[in-house]
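Repro:
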Amino acid sequence: MRLSGSTDVGCVRSENQDNYRAGCLSDGTAWALVCDGMGGANGGKLASTLACDTLEEWMMRWDPSFETGPRGFLMAALDEANKVVHQRAQEEIRYQGMGTTAVLVMIIGDTVHIVHVGDSRCYQYRAGKLMQLTQDHSYVQELVNKGAITPEEAKMHPRKNVITRALGVEKTVEPEYTSSQLNKEQMLMLCSDGLTNAVPIQRIESILAEQPFFEAAQVLVDTANACGGPDNVTVLLAAPDREEQNG
């Protein structure tokens, strides 16, 4: 599995509260993670770091014999991260209310298992097009689901950055699970909203088509900054090795 990522503070923020991790396990399983902290000076950076540290450690525990399978394993992972961030937030008043989004994927053979909380996203890139595999846990997405606004209106809505689920804000959290198939001609893109709020999807697709795999993440981050870089931006790409035959 090929993995490549990049993150940047952007052109406006004073601190990068995004974080990402990725790796390959001894059994060939690959995993990737993006977190986007929230809470401003009240600990967004701490929240995303704690979540990433906890989830990275959790992923090292993966065993194919895990009784509830990949779905249960990943749901338990986000539950554990939520507990760690929430507990830390209760220890100091300055950290109360901090939290973080999380999108975590595990690739086993040709199956992608995804859990997420918040509005950091996972896309599948195939045949030159991006398909969003996750659905934002956000105020505007709820409006779209109800038919109150269109997806186009959601992009310009004044409350588009209000998320309805995050790790660490409450004692419990409800992650969402989905799965998809991935072949050697396809790619996964995990990202924080600093990318998709700044760069049109069509431009992202063009960059993924034009750039070498190990350069594309940095080019996407640079493009977000060239568009004003209003937020922290993180991009993490995962793709099967060209020689690898999924089975």
